[in-house]
Amino acid sequence: MNPAGPALALALAAVAGFAGALYLWRYCYAGPSAAKTLWKGLAVAPLVTISALIPAPVALTVGLFLCLLGDLALSRPGERWFLAGMAAFAGGHVAYTVLFFQAGSLPGVTAPGLALATFAALMGWALWSRTGGLRWPVTAYVAVILVMGLAALGLPPGRVGTIAALAAGAFVASDAVLAAEMFLLAEGSRAKRLAPFAVWPLYLAAQWGFVALGFALF
Fold this sequence. Notes:
Elements: H1 5-27, H2 34-53, H3 58-74, H4 79-102, H5 111-128, H6 135-153, H7 159-184, H8 190-194, H9 196-217
Helix pairs in contact: 1-2, 2-3, 2-9, 3-4, 4-6, 5-6, 6-7, 7-9
């Protein structure tokens, strides 16, 4: 990182932190709007820049950028935007998977891996009958994030492996709560109203974790 890099990274982190907190307070539960798209983007776009400044591995920066595109798409109304956002996030997970294998991931049969695979299978089964015409894209997405999670768990023990596992786990949890909110929870239920307040912090924790991973790999 060049001499001006740390100061710029700190400023970008402050912007991302402020935007993320504002989004949680005002927009995570609200319907689509230009303001929602703006603040959601401002919470993640600085992380892409920080990753490029480190410089983190290209796969990490690409993953963050694709997730940013997914964020922007999912903040817009309609099925086409939802599919575009899901495709962008799937691409982000593929980039993270590539990163993990570049970092030395060797997935094997482990208790955490089996637990993750079982959870993904149960979620996939629960979503299959509730997603209608979206069942195949949703099922494919579940498979992609499962592979990403297994690749994170396959990293050798140590700082990199721990950060990767925590970031991937937060992402899996965020997506699981979001899927439940969209397809499984009853309309008007307390759980459905509270779900956005879990999805957003978990998602941000995942993306900040990937940025921390970039520093660990630098």
